[in-house]
Write a structure and sequence with these properties.
Elements: E1 4-8, H1 12-27, E2 35-38, E3 46-47, E4 50-53, H2 55-60, E5 66-70, H3 75-87, E6 90-92, E7 95-96, E8 101-102, E9 106-108, E10 113-114, E11 119-120, E12 124-126, E13 131-132, E14 137-138, E15 143-144, E16 149-150, E17 155-156, E18 160-162, E19 167-168, E20 173-174, E21 183-185, E22 190-191, E23 196-197, E24 206-208, E25 213-214
Parallel strand pairs: 1-2, 1-5, 2-4, 5-6, 7-10, 8-11, 9-12, 10-13, 11-14, 12-15, 13-16, 14-17, 15-18, 16-19, 17-20, 18-21, 19-22, 20-23, 22-24
Antiparallel strand pairs: 3-4, 24-25
Bound molecules: uridine-5'-diphosphate.
Length: 219
Protein backbone atom coordinates (compact mmCIF):
# COMPACT_ATOMS: atom_id res chain seq x y z
CA UNK A 1 0.00 0.00 0.00
CA UNK A 2 0.95 3.61 -0.57
CA UNK A 3 0.82 6.64 1.68
CA UNK A 4 -2.36 8.71 1.77
CA UNK A 5 -2.38 12.49 1.92
CA UNK A 6 -5.14 14.86 3.00
CA UNK A 7 -6.10 18.48 3.17
CA UNK A 8 -8.22 18.70 6.33
CA UNK A 9 -11.02 21.21 5.69
CA UNK A 10 -12.86 21.44 2.37
CA UNK A 11 -14.04 25.03 2.65
CA UNK A 12 -12.34 28.28 1.62
CA UNK A 13 -8.98 27.67 3.22
CA UNK A 14 -8.80 24.02 2.16
CA UNK A 15 -9.73 24.79 -1.43
CA UNK A 16 -6.81 27.24 -1.52
CA UNK A 17 -4.37 24.69 -0.11
CA UNK A 18 -5.48 21.72 -2.26
CA UNK A 19 -3.84 22.88 -5.53
CA UNK A 20 -0.57 23.41 -3.66
CA UNK A 21 -0.83 19.94 -2.15
CA UNK A 22 -1.55 18.44 -5.57
CA UNK A 23 1.47 20.15 -7.14
CA UNK A 24 3.70 19.05 -4.27
CA UNK A 25 2.72 15.39 -4.76
CA UNK A 26 3.28 15.59 -8.52
CA UNK A 27 6.85 16.62 -7.65
CA UNK A 28 7.12 13.47 -5.51
CA UNK A 29 5.55 11.25 -8.23
CA UNK A 30 2.58 10.37 -6.00
CA UNK A 31 -0.73 9.76 -7.78
CA UNK A 32 -3.51 12.31 -7.46
CA UNK A 33 -5.83 9.54 -6.25
CA UNK A 34 -3.76 9.35 -3.02
CA UNK A 35 -4.85 12.91 -2.14
CA UNK A 36 -8.22 13.65 -0.54
CA UNK A 37 -10.02 16.28 1.47
CA UNK A 38 -11.09 15.42 5.01
CA UNK A 39 -14.18 17.20 6.27
CA UNK A 40 -16.33 16.32 9.27
CA UNK A 41 -19.35 17.96 7.68
CA UNK A 42 -18.88 17.32 3.97
CA UNK A 43 -20.97 19.54 1.74
CA UNK A 44 -20.31 17.36 -1.33
CA UNK A 45 -18.62 14.00 -2.05
CA UNK A 46 -16.14 15.60 -4.46
CA UNK A 47 -14.77 19.14 -4.32
CA UNK A 48 -12.71 20.51 -7.21
CA UNK A 49 -12.05 17.00 -8.44
CA UNK A 50 -10.86 15.60 -5.11
CA UNK A 51 -12.74 13.11 -2.94
CA UNK A 52 -14.04 14.36 0.41
CA UNK A 53 -13.86 11.84 3.26
CA UNK A 54 -14.98 12.10 6.82
CA UNK A 55 -12.12 11.70 9.26
CA UNK A 56 -13.24 8.21 10.27
CA UNK A 57 -13.37 7.21 6.59
CA UNK A 58 -9.88 8.60 6.07
CA UNK A 59 -8.60 6.39 8.87
CA UNK A 60 -10.26 3.33 7.30
CA UNK A 61 -8.53 3.71 3.92
CA UNK A 62 -5.68 1.34 3.06
CA UNK A 63 -2.49 3.33 3.57
CA UNK A 64 1.12 2.72 4.58
CA UNK A 65 1.21 6.18 6.20
CA UNK A 66 -1.27 9.02 6.59
CA UNK A 67 -0.38 12.70 6.27
CA UNK A 68 -2.67 15.69 6.73
CA UNK A 69 -2.31 19.45 6.49
CA UNK A 70 -4.86 21.28 8.63
CA UNK A 71 -6.34 23.82 6.25
CA UNK A 72 -8.74 25.55 8.62
CA UNK A 73 -8.15 29.19 9.52
CA UNK A 74 -9.48 28.92 13.09
CA UNK A 75 -6.38 28.19 15.15
CA UNK A 76 -8.24 26.60 18.07
CA UNK A 77 -9.81 24.12 15.67
CA UNK A 78 -6.36 23.43 14.21
CA UNK A 79 -5.05 22.70 17.68
CA UNK A 80 -7.87 20.24 18.43
CA UNK A 81 -7.45 18.49 15.11
CA UNK A 82 -3.67 18.34 15.50
CA UNK A 83 -4.12 16.47 18.78
CA UNK A 84 -6.65 14.12 17.21
CA UNK A 85 -4.41 13.39 14.23
CA UNK A 86 -1.38 12.82 16.43
CA UNK A 87 -3.30 10.34 18.59
CA UNK A 88 -4.26 8.38 15.46
CA UNK A 89 -0.79 8.36 13.92
CA UNK A 90 -1.71 10.85 11.18
CA UNK A 91 1.42 12.86 10.48
CA UNK A 92 1.46 16.64 10.26
CA UNK A 93 2.13 17.55 6.64
CA UNK A 94 3.64 20.83 5.46
CA UNK A 95 2.30 22.13 2.17
CA UNK A 96 4.07 24.97 0.43
CA UNK A 97 3.52 26.78 -2.84
CA UNK A 98 6.44 26.30 -5.18
CA UNK A 99 7.16 30.04 -5.37
CA UNK A 100 7.56 30.55 -1.61
CA UNK A 101 10.82 32.35 -0.91
CA UNK A 102 12.68 30.93 2.05
CA UNK A 103 16.01 32.50 2.92
CA UNK A 104 18.71 31.44 5.40
CA UNK A 105 18.24 29.71 8.76
CA UNK A 106 14.46 29.38 8.77
CA UNK A 107 13.11 26.89 11.30
CA UNK A 108 9.57 26.00 10.31
CA UNK A 109 7.50 23.73 12.57
CA UNK A 110 5.47 20.82 11.27
CA UNK A 111 2.13 21.17 9.49
CA UNK A 112 2.58 24.60 7.90
CA UNK A 113 0.49 25.84 4.97
CA UNK A 114 2.41 28.40 2.89
CA UNK A 115 0.46 30.05 0.09
CA UNK A 116 1.78 31.50 -3.17
CA UNK A 117 4.05 34.56 -2.93
CA UNK A 118 4.88 34.09 0.76
CA UNK A 119 8.36 35.16 1.83
CA UNK A 120 10.21 33.97 4.91
CA UNK A 121 13.49 35.87 5.15
CA UNK A 122 16.49 34.95 7.30
CA UNK A 123 17.00 33.76 10.88
CA UNK A 124 13.39 33.04 11.72
CA UNK A 125 11.78 30.58 14.14
CA UNK A 126 8.21 29.49 13.43
CA UNK A 127 6.14 27.01 15.46
CA UNK A 128 3.69 24.28 14.47
CA UNK A 129 0.74 24.56 12.07
CA UNK A 130 1.57 28.06 10.84
CA UNK A 131 -0.66 29.48 8.12
CA UNK A 132 0.85 32.10 5.84
CA UNK A 133 -1.71 33.17 3.30
CA UNK A 134 -1.10 34.83 -0.10
CA UNK A 135 1.58 37.52 -0.24
CA UNK A 136 2.25 37.55 3.50
CA UNK A 137 5.81 37.77 4.79
CA UNK A 138 7.94 37.25 7.87
CA UNK A 139 11.08 39.40 8.03
CA UNK A 140 14.40 38.69 9.75
CA UNK A 141 14.83 37.56 13.36
CA UNK A 142 11.15 36.99 14.09
CA UNK A 143 9.98 34.32 16.50
CA UNK A 144 6.50 32.98 15.78
CA UNK A 145 4.63 30.57 18.05
CA UNK A 146 2.33 27.64 17.34
CA UNK A 147 -1.01 27.86 15.47
CA UNK A 148 -0.36 31.40 14.24
CA UNK A 149 -2.37 32.61 11.23
CA UNK A 150 -1.41 35.27 8.69
CA UNK A 151 -4.24 36.41 6.41
CA UNK A 152 -3.38 37.51 2.85
CA UNK A 153 -0.84 40.31 2.69
CA UNK A 154 0.03 40.35 6.42
CA UNK A 155 3.40 42.05 6.78
CA UNK A 156 5.55 41.17 9.74
CA UNK A 157 8.76 43.19 9.84
CA UNK A 158 11.95 42.20 11.64
CA UNK A 159 12.52 41.51 15.35
CA UNK A 160 8.90 40.75 16.13
CA UNK A 161 7.67 38.03 18.50
CA UNK A 162 4.22 36.59 17.78
CA UNK A 163 2.85 34.27 20.43
CA UNK A 164 0.70 31.16 19.94
CA UNK A 165 -2.74 31.47 18.31
CA UNK A 166 -2.34 35.10 17.25
CA UNK A 167 -4.20 36.11 14.07
CA UNK A 168 -2.80 38.81 11.78
CA UNK A 169 -5.47 40.24 9.48
CA UNK A 170 -5.23 40.93 5.80
CA UNK A 171 -2.85 43.72 4.88
CA UNK A 172 -1.86 44.50 8.47
CA UNK A 173 1.67 45.85 8.96
CA UNK A 174 3.70 45.15 12.08
CA UNK A 175 6.48 47.63 12.82
CA UNK A 176 10.01 46.35 13.17
CA UNK A 177 11.10 45.74 16.76
CA UNK A 178 14.64 46.01 18.08
CA UNK A 179 17.07 43.17 18.63
CA UNK A 180 17.18 44.02 22.36
CA UNK A 181 13.45 44.78 22.57
CA UNK A 182 11.30 42.95 20.03
CA UNK A 183 7.77 44.09 19.38
CA UNK A 184 5.46 41.45 20.91
CA UNK A 185 2.05 40.34 19.68
CA UNK A 186 0.58 38.46 22.65
CA UNK A 187 -0.97 35.02 22.73
CA UNK A 188 -4.31 34.82 20.93
CA UNK A 189 -4.28 38.49 19.94
CA UNK A 190 -6.11 39.59 16.79
CA UNK A 191 -4.68 42.29 14.55
CA UNK A 192 -7.45 43.70 12.36
CA UNK A 193 -7.09 43.98 8.61
CA UNK A 194 -5.04 46.94 7.50
CA UNK A 195 -3.90 47.77 11.04
CA UNK A 196 -0.56 49.50 11.47
CA UNK A 197 0.92 48.02 14.62
CA UNK A 198 3.52 50.30 16.19
CA UNK A 199 3.75 48.82 19.70
CA UNK A 200 3.16 45.64 21.68
CA UNK A 201 -0.30 44.05 21.51
CA UNK A 202 -1.51 42.47 24.78
CA UNK A 203 -2.42 38.78 24.79
CA UNK A 204 -6.05 38.13 23.93
CA UNK A 205 -6.75 41.65 22.71
CA UNK A 206 -7.89 42.95 19.33
CA UNK A 207 -6.30 45.99 17.74
CA UNK A 208 -7.40 47.96 14.67
CA UNK A 209 -6.52 51.12 12.77
CA UNK A 210 -3.52 53.33 12.17
CA UNK A 211 -1.81 53.48 14.55
CA UNK A 212 -3.37 50.29 15.85
CA UNK A 213 -5.38 50.75 19.05
CA UNK A 214 -7.39 48.43 21.26
CA UNK A 215 -10.71 47.72 19.64
CA UNK A 216 -13.79 48.37 21.68
CA UNK A 217 -17.02 47.05 20.13
CA UNK A 218 -19.00 50.13 21.19
CA UNK A 219 -16.53 52.35 19.33
N1 LIG B 1 -14.23 21.36 9.85
C1 LIG B 1 -14.00 20.02 10.08
N2 LIG B 1 -13.77 19.61 11.36
C2 LIG B 1 -13.79 20.47 12.42
C3 LIG B 1 -14.03 21.84 12.18
C4 LIG B 1 -14.24 22.24 10.87
O1 LIG B 1 -13.98 19.23 9.15
O2 LIG B 1 -13.59 20.02 13.56
C5 LIG B 1 -14.48 21.79 8.47
C6 LIG B 1 -15.84 22.42 8.28
O3 LIG B 1 -16.82 21.41 8.04
C7 LIG B 1 -15.62 23.34 7.08
C8 LIG B 1 -14.15 23.73 7.23
O4 LIG B 1 -13.56 22.80 8.12
O5 LIG B 1 -15.83 22.67 5.87
C9 LIG B 1 -13.96 25.12 7.82
O6 LIG B 1 -14.45 26.01 6.93
P1 LIG B 1 -14.74 27.54 7.22
O7 LIG B 1 -15.43 28.06 6.02
O8 LIG B 1 -15.37 27.69 8.56
O9 LIG B 1 -13.31 28.21 7.37
P2 LIG B 1 -11.98 28.29 6.49
O10 LIG B 1 -12.08 27.39 5.31
O11 LIG B 1 -11.88 29.72 6.10
O12 LIG B 1 -10.93 27.90 7.44
Amino acid sequence: TQPLFAVYGASGCGRGVMPLARAQLVGQCIADTRLVFIDDQPAAPVVNGQRVLRYTEFLQQEASERHAVLAIANSKVREQLAARCKADGVRAWTVSADNVVRMDDVELGEGAALSPFVTLTSNIRIGRHFHANLYSYVEHDCVIGDFVTFAPGAKCNGNVVIEDHAYIGSGAVIKQGRPDKPLVIGRGAVVGMGAVVTRDVPAGSTVVGNPARLFSPKG
